[in-house]
Write a structure and sequence with these properties.
- The chain contains 22 helices and no strands.
- It has helices spanning about 5-15, 20-35, 45-50, 55-75, 75-95, 100-125, 135-160, 165-175, 180-190, 195-200, 205-215, 220-240, 245-250, 250-270, 270-285, 290-320, 320-340, 350-365, 370-380, 385-415, 415-440, 450-455.
- Helix 1 (about 5-15) runs antiparallel to helix 6 (about 100-125) and helix 2 (about 20-35) packs parallel to helix 15 (about 270-285).
- It is globular.
Length: about 450
């Protein structure tokens, strides 16, 4: 029977998941700003990709230090630092007057985004009951989708209510400045959540951890005590291994790390962020104007929010393996059809509509599977002792793949053309579906400690 969430648990999950909104806001802000930024800051095609890729590149380093810092200082304080970094980045990007300054602040913000993308799903997994853990970790993806939706609306409002000259001078800066609002909200919310009980137990604060477990769980006192004892037992076993690297490369854990890293890379090679960053350009090339393409991306943002909500309802019922497998194959079909659509010397209005439809369907498959599913897997595959640092490695690989795709996508479109670009992404979608079907063992409905015991 599914456990009910206590109000205390819900507040903690909502606050931590809100960090995903920062991620989503950044994912969408460049799709609007890129249309106007070139007037104030001259950018070549390669430089344009580097500006868009500044956040994911910075996030690689943010991920790598997040796990180590979180094990030393706690999950909550590092998430607070990530909020501050994001706020400073949005202000700096909005005020930039030359490309190097803009890139520097994008990298700076990437540190914060990398930290929160590692720790928010991990924190939610560590405080959530096993029966609803997938749904609650999925709330992080819902926050990402909500952030994308909000920034698409902001981009469209700014672009469609002012002149082109105003947008080229001021409008794109306001798109960045607006990001300070979710950054400040996230920072404030973190003051009202507890530290992870698993982190507290690992650091000898068992009494404090026991009190938090009682507040976040609606289960019986006997079952709460069993969970507490199970966590203590696994922590005691882990403490016998003095080397984090020795623990990380144990036979079973090593396999989990490989799965997490490959899934992280695969998530980006679905092509979703390439479509997300450059959706207005894709729509514009398909026949829409600049402002019309921005309005069309609002619809994509709404689709993201709706279908992440469906994902949250399905992930614990259908399981991770089934959703990820079906999602991979579904996205592959969309990418291959997009390649066929772009294999034309001129695009008719009917094909314009079909291209937009395929982009939306691809987004639906992504949000029902790999969008939130990847964060769920990363957050639950590793033992308590190394969960933060192992998650850092997987998350860093995800952001490195994000950077590669963001940097290469405009170059691929120019040199290879749309047909081969979408065909390549479709091929990766097929591979990832086959990979999950072949090697992944279901984790739905199992406690983190049970997953750990089965792994090692």
């Amino acid at each position: 029977m599914e456990k009910k969430a206590t109000p205390y648990l819900m507040r903690a999950v909502v606050a931590a998941a809100f960090g995903g909104l920062l991620f989503g806001y950044d994912e969408g802000v460049m799709s609007g700003a890129l249309n106007f930024i070139g007037h104030s800051i001259k950018l070549s095609s390669a430089m344009e990709g580097f500006v868009s890729g500044g956040i994911p590149l910075g996030a690689v380093f943010g991920c790598l230090i997040a796990g180590w810092l979180a094990d030393k200082l706690g999950r909550r304080i590092i998430m607070s630092i990530s909020a501050v970094l994001f706020i400073l980045s949005t202000v700096g990007c909005g005020a930039a007057t030359v490309a190097p300054v803009l890139i520097a602040f994008r990298l700076f913000g990437g540190l914060g985004i990398g930290m929160v993308s590692t720790l928010a799903p991990l924190y939610i997994a560590e405080i959530s009951p096993k029966d609803i853990r997938g749904k609650y970790v999925g709330s992080y993806q819902l926050a990402i989708a909500t952030g994308v939706f909000i920034v698409y609306i902001i981009n469209a409002l700014i672009a469609n209510t002012h002149t082109l000259a105003w947008n080229e001078d001021i409008g794109w800066r306001l798109m960045f400045y607006a990001g300070t609002v979710p950054g400040v909200i996230f920072f404030i919310l973190l003051f009202f959540i507890p530290e992870s009980p698993r982190f507290l137990i690992s650091n000898g604060k068992s009494d404090q951890a026991k009190g938090i477990l009682k507040k976040i769980s609606s289960d019986t006192s006997e079952n709460i005590k069993k969970e507490f004892d199970s966590i203590q037992e696994t922590v005691a076993i882990e403490n016998k291994s003095k080397s984090m690297w020795a623990e990380l490369f144990k036979k079973g854990v090593r396999a989990s790390l490989i799965i997490a890293v490959l899934c992280s890379v695969f998530q980006q090679f679905t092509g979703t962020n390439a479509i997300g960053y450059y959706a207005p350009i894709i729509f514009r090339d398909a026949g829409a104007g600049v402002n019309a393409s921005l309005i069309e991306t609002i619809f994509i943002g709404l689709v993201k929010v709706i279908f992440v909500a469906f994902f949250m309802g399905l992930i614990d019922r259908l399981g991770r393996k089934r959703l990820l497998t079906w999602g991979g194959f579904g996205m592959a079909i969309c990418m291959f059809l997009l390649a066929i659509c772009f294999d034309r010397s001129s695009i008719s209005k009917a094909f314009d509509f079909f291209i937009v439809a395929l982009t939306v369907i691809h987004t639906i498959f992504f949000e029902l599977s790999w969008g939130g599913g990847t964060w769920v897997l990363i957050s639950e595959l590793f033992p308590n002792k190394i969960r933060a640092r192992a998650s850092s490695i997987a998350s860093a690989c995800l952001w490195l793949a994000t950077y590669v795709v963001t940097q290469l996508f405009p170059i691929m479109l120019t040199s290879l053309g749309s047909v081969w670009t979408f065909t390549i992404f479709g091929f990766f979608c097929v591979v990832m579906g086959l990979f999950i079907h072949a090697v992944f063992h279901e984790t739905a409905g199992k406690s983190l400690e049970q997953i750990q015991r089965e792994t090692v």
